[in-house]
Specification:
By secondary structure, the chain is an alpha+beta fold. Helix content is 50%, strand content 20%. The protein has 2 domains: 32-163, PHR domain (Jelly Rolls, Sandwich), CATH 2.60.120; 167-415, no CATH class.
Amino acid sequence: MIWIPQILRGWIVLALAGALSGGHWVDADQPLRSPALSIPLEPERSVAQTIVARHAGLAGVEVWLKPERGTVGTVTLSVQDPASAQILRQARIILSGGDPSGAYSFRFPDLTDSFNRRYRVVLTFEGQGRVWLGVGPAEAYLDGALYRGDQPQEAQLAFRLIYTPFWIAADLVRAAGKGLALLILAAFLYGGPGRALLQLWGEPKEWSGWAAWGLATGVSLAFYPLLFLWADAFGLRLGPLPIALVVVTSAWLGWGIFPRRWVTALRGALFSPPEAAALGVVGLAFGIRLLAVRGLEAPMWGDGFQHTVITQLLLDHGGLFTRWAPYAPISSFTYHFGFHSAAAALAWLTGWSAPQAVLWGGQILNALATLSLYPLAVRLADGSRWAGAVAVLLPALLWPMPMFYVNWGRYPQLAG
């Protein structure tokens, strides 16, 4: 399993170092090369590789070339839009007849918005002789395919992508802003109903700060399946407006409308060392989890598909349903819907599709699951806030679980 905090640390260091030095960062997307699989690049036939850029600021492509002795001419690399075949960037290398084999860098003006975009890299040769391209096995790269002319090949081009770190850093800053907005929204959606109910029930005074948040998120997640159940019992249909009304009303009941209460709570979190430590851990946990799924278009593993279908059906029917059409020939619904109701509420509030709500909602719950340990640890440690901070730190950043749920996709188990 990928150690996500190490990836985050590495990206930040590389982005800052590159931004300060003005250099480039080379990412080894497909470094494998099998000499027995090399394919020729000849004047009459192009070679193309489809790719996905994993960062912003794509500035070049490194390709392994082996010019035959006496080969003279020009190798041109074109970066195209795979849908329209429009040439976005071009770079050339001139071969003089005695060039060695190795990695050749094709540099071009930065594609500043290249993050998670698909491209078609086309190599052509004009001149005398022949150039061999290094390739690896077909399973070495999962985000693209190799073509010789129009014919797909059972191989993948050996290549590395070159990025300008400044644009990587700028893209991460933009992502951080979007992530912060999402977390504020999630605080109302997955914290507001629980906070309001705890206030109505008479929340004990010792439950404050992150202990209150830990309880509020747990109660909120239990609230949404009950909301769907009672709405179905009374024949009511849910949607964006009812969910927005629930969120606004619960926020008003839970926190009131006076900013002074928010300022007091924030001051308590920042100036209490254990509360501030927990705040930093939770913020870092959210950042790591959201960063890990930026490049994904849908939830992973088989369970992710199933939960996405159920969430989509909740959205289609405005609540609970008994017919799975058109996705499956089933006329009953006996599956538990706790996570799916929370994901559907997120989709209605944000306007996201079901795959997005399941993917990003699962990561939000992944971080909230660690926060839920805070009040338990504080209670078991006779009110020690440091015990709560440590209890959050371990699963948030150090343990494989619950981070592995992004690969596993068993989000209802995570929500439980």
